[in-house]
Amino acid sequence: MDILIHTCCAPCLVKTAEVFSEEGYLPHIFWFNPNIHPYREYLRRREALFQYLQERNYPFHDEDLYDLKKFLTAVDCGEERCSGCYRLRLTRTAEKASELSMHAFTTTLLISPHQNREQIIRVGERAADDAGVEFVHSDLRPHFREGQADARKLGLYLQPYCGCIFSEYERYSKREVELG
Fold first, then answer.
1. What is the mean predicted confidence (pLDDT) over 73-94?
2. Which of 6, 15, 71, 129 could join 143 via S-S bond, C-beta 3.0 to 4.6 A?
3. Model confidence pLDDT, tens digit, residues 134-160
């Protein structure tokens, strides 16, 4: 059975794809991340994904769209900004799954203990309902550290923040406070 995996980055994909393969799915990889900023970071993560996929036979679907305006329009700069980001990416993933006649999709965001799992599930289920597909929300967080270790062994780029301009700002503003 095919499953479309929205992929935020190669390190999060390593164990996600492995787990779904072990569960009997054929992972199809989907790149759609207009949230990643700056553009050099976007390219670096995309390149790491290509590096990882070179030796794997996963079908790949690329929606190479660096669109900061689209991302900023989709999110609220306040507390709920992640929900808008999840909605943007998971809605497009659900639509893509439907376009490809797949009955299910998921996201590598579910492996990260740094993401809001409950919010991802709410947004994913709504996107699934709207697109007429299933959202598979396995709890992959127990595999996070192992996936990161595997990514290091493979020489993959491991990013220091979620990818959006807001998390980049928070990363540097916290550092300024610590150095302060």
1. 81
2. 15
3. 999 999 999 999 999 999 999 999 987
Alpha helices for 9-143 (secondary structure H) = 10-22, 39-53, 68-74, 81-99, 117-131
Q: Please give the tally of structural domains in the chain.
A: 1
Q: Determine the pLDDT at residue 177.
A: 47
> Other C-beta atoms within 10 Å of 119: how many?
16
Nearest one of 46, 42, 34 to 75, comparing CA atoms? 34
SS3 105: strand
The one-character DSSP state at 30 is: E
Contact criterion met (CB below 8 Å) for 150 and 14: yes
Which phi and psi (to 5°) does residue 119 adopt?
Answer: -65, -40
> Is 85 in contact with 164 (CB distance < 8 Å)?
yes
> Residue 51 carries which side chain, given as an amino acid letter?
Q
Residue 180 identity: G
Is residue 108 within 8 Å of residue 17, measured between CB atoms? Answer: no
φ and ψ at 62, to 5 degrees?
-115, 120
What's the predicted TM-score (pTM) here? Answer: 0.89
CATH number (domain holding residue 161): 3.40.50.620
